[in-house]
Design goal:
single chain, seven-stranded mixed β-sheet, about 45% helix, elongated
């Protein structure tokens, strides 16, 4: 499998995550020290505490996505490792963040790194629930909630369809489907009724090779699709 990534964006936002979190903690520490040394300095203390908290949350938000072992680009690459040369993973180079180009079309992945129990309960509206030890404090330091990953995935898939429509006259012949993957080893996922396919990391390749295997497009259409997505370039890192 070939991987094409926007390394500049990843490096920049990874640094924002790491240094933002560290800077926020230092500013919070400074505010705490000032509050003990000069308790009458109410405004500087309030400013430093507010700034420190904001930096920590913003840094945590980006660190959750771009830094560490569960960085979305890295974790998804590991999940899909082993797919053959006919597959290309494009990350942060298209209107959708993570796009897998397959012989039969495109799969747009929304990546979630939350651990704990994640469930989808079907109903009139459908609802995602997330239970995790320390979840409140994780949210305080910038970890996003599970939210509505089905809506996120559909929105990104639609953005890719629109993009392809601008690049190809026969874009409507290309299947573009959304999917959700939870990459944390510690997640317990129950989402069989999700309107968008949702998988624990080990199940993704089984789905791609089994029930989710798309019928291969004609070779000339595959070539035009690869060109439209920029997947025919020599950049990126190749994986077996």
């Amino acid at each position: 499998m070939q991987v094409i990534r926007n390394e500049r964006r990843i490096e920049m936002l990874s640094n924002v995550g790491q240094y933002g979190t560290l800077g926020g903690l230092l500013v919070l520490l400074a505010g705490l020290i000032i509050s003990f040394a000069r308790p009458e300095w109410v405004l500087p203390v309030a400013i430093s505490m507010g700034l420190g908290f904001t930096l920590s949350v913003v840094g945590g938000f980006f660190a959750d996505r771009y830094a560490g072992s569960l960085a979305h680009h890295r974790a998804l690459g590991e999940v899909l490792k082993g797919l053959d040369y006919r597959h290309t993973l494009l990350q942060y180079v298209l209107p959708a963040d993570h796009v897998l180009l397959e012989p039969g079309g495109c799969t747009v992945f929304v990546v979630k790194s939350q651990g704990g129990e994640v469930t989808y309960e079907d109903g009139d509206q459908g609802k995602w629930k997330h239970r995790q030890r320390g979840r409140f404090f994780r949210r305080l330091v910038g970890q996003a909630g599970v939210g509505r990953p089905d809506r996120e995935a559909r929105k990104e898939a639609e953005a890719l369809r629109t993009y392809l429509g601008e690049q190809m006259e026969d874009a409507d012949e290309v299947p573009v489907r959304p999917a959700i993957v939870f990459v944390n080893e510690d997640v317990q996922l129950e989402a069989e009724d999700s309107p968008v396919p949702a998988f624990y990391r080990k199940k993704v390749k089984d789905w791609l090779r089994g029930p989710g295997d798309l019928r291969a497009l004609p070779e000339d259409l595959q070539g035009r699709l690869a060109e439209a997505l920029g997947a025919d370039q020599d950049e990126g890192e190749a994986e077996s």
